[in-house]
Amino acid sequence: MSSLLRAHQLTCIREDRVLFDELSFTVNAGDLIQIEGANGAGKTSLLRLLAGLSLPYEGEVRYQEQAITKCREDFYQDLTFIGHLAGVKGELTAIENLSFSLSLQQDNTDNIDNAIERVSLSGFEDSYASHLSAGQNRRIALARLWQSTSKIWILDEPFTAIDKAGVAQLEQLFLDHIAHGGAIVFTSHQELQIANQSAQRINLEDLI
Amino acid sequence: MSSLLRAHQLTCIREDRVLFDELSFTVNAGDLIQIEGANGAGKTSLLRLLAGLSLPYEGEVRYQEQAITKCREDFYQDLTFIGHLAGVKGELTAIENLSFSLSLQQDNTDNIDNAIERVSLSGFEDSYASHLSAGQNRRIALARLWQSTSKIWILDEPFTAIDKAGVAQLEQLFLDHIAHGGAIVFTSHQELQIANQSAQRINLEDLI
Amino acid sequence: MWKWLHPYAKPERSYQLASTLLPWFAISSIVLLVIGAVWGLAFAPAELYQKEYYRIIYIHVPSATLSMSVYMAMATAVLISMVWQLKLADAAAAAMAPIGATLTATALITGAIWGAPSWGTSWVWDARLTSYLILLFLYLGVIALHNAFEDKALASRAAGILTLVGVVNIPIIKYSVEWWNTLHQTATISKLSAPSMSSEMLWPLLTNILAFALMIGALTLIRFKNEVLARNAMRPWVRELAAKVGDK
Amino acid sequence: MSAPQSLSYRQLFWQVMHRDLKVAVHNKGDILNPLIFLVIVITLFPLGVGPETNLLTRIAPGIIWVAALLSALLSLERLFKNDYSDGSLEQMLLSPQPLFIMVLAKISAHWLLTGLPIILIAPLLALMLHMEPLAYPALMITLALGTPVLSLIGAIGVALTVGLKKGGVLLSLLILPLYIPVLIFATAAIEAAALNMPYSGHIAIISALLVLALTLSPFAVSAALRVSTN
Amino acid sequence: MSAPQSLSYRQLFWQVMHRDLKVAVHNKGDILNPLIFLVIVITLFPLGVGPETNLLTRIAPGIIWVAALLSALLSLERLFKNDYSDGSLEQMLLSPQPLFIMVLAKISAHWLLTGLPIILIAPLLALMLHMEPLAYPALMITLALGTPVLSLIGAIGVALTVGLKKGGVLLSLLILPLYIPVLIFATAAIEAAALNMPYSGHIAIISALLVLALTLSPFAVSAALRVSTN
Amino acid sequence: MHFDSFSDFIAMGGHAFYVWWAYGITFTLLFTLTVVSVRRKKSLLKEIAKRAQHEDKLKQMRKDKKTNESKT
Ligand code: HEM
Ligand SMILES: Nc1ncnc2c1ncn2[C@@H]1O[C@H](COP(=O)(O)OP(=O)(O)OP(=O)(O)O)[C@@H](O)[C@H]1O
Ligand SMILES: Nc1ncnc2c1ncn2[C@@H]1O[C@H](COP(=O)(O)OP(=O)(O)OP(=O)(O)O)[C@@H](O)[C@H]1O
Ligand SMILES: [Mg+2]
Ligand SMILES: [Mg+2]
What we know:
The complex is a heterohexamer, with two copies of chain A (208 residues), one copy of chain C (248 residues), two copies of chain D (230 residues) and one copy of chain F (72 residues). By secondary structure, chain A is an alpha/beta fold.
């Protein structure tokens, strides 16, 4: 079986500081990969490289053995990325935000109510996002994952601002996703259950 | 001994939803109070009320038995508040950011290098904040705490984006602060060591 | 002042007071409006220099004069709310802004229509007209600010600051006629408002001014009640009222 | 080669545009404010240059067009800035859907919210400035053809500056020079019309500019966005 | 009653102003851009109105002042917006130091970055528009007294709208009406000067406006900031 | 009565256009404002009722959730 996503000798340099050098790894179906490292180690930089949002100093990222710059459309069909910024518009309601981002991603837009319920936002569907708390905003962004049809998930600190019950639910979702042949690359500074059980770890500090 | 800060029958209503009703509690020197509650329970709203950044629907907050609206200057002399937003300017260097916020707060501006070292930003003093990572930005804001001369600290999710080593250091700082007669009111969704040992908890969901 | 106001400072009481006052204002203003309109349109004599179109005066002058009074009333309400922390004064100020804006627009439009036959142009950039246009902008600014904030209490405080800053403009509007070389307007005004204005014309004009004032009162009461409801949506008495409507 | 598309291009276009309009409607002011800005600017000029009718008649086309230009400029900043700072621009860049269609939809929404109202209120402004009645049709036609060009060209500048903190004034530096041809031909057309001379040549040039902008701008904007979010 | 102050008011003022200037220097463009905007707007007018010298001489004072006004307006948005969205405004509100001094310092920095350059470049612009040479001193004096008023009054509008998403255009609705008196008296003074008539009366009124704005605005702005960050 | 006949009155000495437009617009504007203000009360109360129900629903849901949790 060919790999889903492959980092090929990635080098990232920011402000003359080498964050990682010739980093290579493979993401296969069923993988749960946690990128580790202290603050400023380069986790966010790596994830943005993987998603094609920025270009590496050297090396390339490959989707199904093809450079992602060459097959943007196919790759993005199969990718869900959630970064430090939630991408939630304060002027739209929770449900409007969700259905717009789903249709951008060509994900499943049926049964949105279910996703809303999963992230415990029932009762807030029609509240404007600017009227919701930090964690509730984050939940609107995460609700996408429940409807996602893409295999590769790249998530930068998905658990920020989420309460304990929410974290547990998300962890369960992660397990389901990899069990169904998906792959997840994520970062987190929190102690997680799943990380201990099933995650591979890539520690950026060990690399240089 | 009189209390440092007292919440007197605070009622908070947002969008016609009562978040808490006639909530009263006292913050004394040496207290470490964790506000708990799920996403959207009203933690941030409560902390902003306590800091005088917004006004309660009913009730009042008292500093040394005086309404804070009547003694703003004295109260703010004795308060350090760090919210969801870090208050760090991307166009200034780490050290410029820190020294400005310290002088605003009339805190100790000697020995700033020490504070920078405490938050592991040595080597990044002269980097512009916009060139630092999410966690490093947050650390610039937190560095203030090491120089703070104020008794009351109000911190909204101070551990967001901070790595594990950083969290441990902060916890130690909290213990030192309350041991020296300070008081801390904070929120966090993470499992903490100190919370189990020495914190009082106020759970917003049990209140209604 | 404070003691006299206080009993009505409770939202529910003042809501009821407004409800009892409203019919008196409404009925008297409707009666006077009808009388004033018929008197002005059909019975007042013709004017010497201008033809029948001078009859526009009976709506132009009341709306023009009163629109500025409404602004001052609004500013007073804001001041009361700031000095005595009286939230109801905020509701009153919020209620008045759209009324003032409508009157200003009315005066502008009727003036423009009047100008067409009497000056041969409906708009000139002279002192009074321009500064009056500024008044409309000020009103629109206050209304926009009221609408921009979700929280009514905050909206009132923000709009209140703007209202007070805008008061500086009122004397400028009043006296700009003298500061700035004006064209047609002053001549026309002095012609009509000089003592030479016959009492047969003056009385219907005064009637109309009174009628407009009463109408403004009635409208303010209606809108004031709405504002009180919106600002006290949490109170049980409002909830009861709402439940009645919800059932229907 | 690409996977089956669940959304046709047209649907995508409508969806993005609809969203932007919805955001604008929620910020109620967004719809009225460009208009009000225009009215205020138009009011400032007679105050600044004096109220003489002849003078105003002379400069009316220029003033209206410069004001339209500035109004477009002011409102343009919003076009991508908010999307950038809340992260939804990132999400659009990561969508498998073609970016230039989304960009075109956003620009169309911007024009509906700023260009169209200008056209609708233009006769009133012209009246206030005592513009020559003969020139009204020319004013309307040039505005109808020219304001979309303003939105389309402006979007390129906004896309280039969206990642920078500077925004506003750098933007004007980038795009005002590009606006100049539109301004020149539009006012020339109106002045010709006021003298009862033919002006179809000018109109043809503006139309050409519109077609050019319509075909090139969405691609330029897409490329610029990928660069400035890097 | 208050605790011993480690910073005198003057130090606080300098520190806040220094910070704002440093931020502007880092965004290099911030210093040049208002100027360039002004130059471009001034260039647009001859293009829109036509190049006749007499006509330009007539409308020059009005155009320069309207452009100065719009340039102030455009740059004003920055005044508190960035501080608001990165949370440093919150920190200022929570400082034991008097807010109105910080506000005054920020407004002064804004004026140094936008008002002062306008004054310095004004003679050049006047030359470009063939302004009457007699009127130059009046132009300079009115700009020197008037531009601080623009910054001071504008700050009130910005402070009121800083918490709102709408920003830009609502701002213009709020403060342009308040700018009109400055515009009227300034251009009237310049026109009087061009006719070699006395204009000290107008200057006196502008000075009065300046004093009024200087005393009231910092407090109005402080109050507005507390409201809009609520 | 100043006018000789009703049609004279309507004609307003040849200036009917101006007079009737002015009166017409004025009273239309004022009437609209009145209607909008009066109607606002009803829609406001409806809104408040809706929100009250919404709040009850939320409370109910939270209660349900709690009882569920305590069961498990
Ligand atoms: C758009 C056009 C016009 C505007 C904005 C306008 C505005 C005003 C204002 C604001 C006032 C009230 C002044 C005060 O209370 O101090 C007023 C009064 C008056 N206007 Fe007009 N006006 C306009 C056109 C006209 C025309 C065309 C006429 C008649 C030829 C006219 C005749 C009068 C008269 C007679 C008064 C009462 C004067 C007095 O007692 O002070 N107006 N107008
Ligand atoms: N600006 C606002 N306008 C109206 N309602 C708001 C606003 N901000 C928050 N709310 C409401 O107040 C509730 C509490 O918000 P708050 O931010 O205090 O929650 P929180 O406990 O801090 O949550 P989190 O853990 O997600 O940070 C939210 O559920 C939301 O409905
Ligand atoms: N925009 C930028 N320009 C220049 N350098 C940058 C920029 N952003 C980040 N860096 C540098 O890259 C390093 C890694 O940043 P990155 O955001 O990838 O860290 P991270 O591992 O995600 O940290 P955190 O845990 O704090 O989120 C930082 O130390 C910083 O020096
Ligand atoms: Mg990161
Ligand atoms: Mg919170």
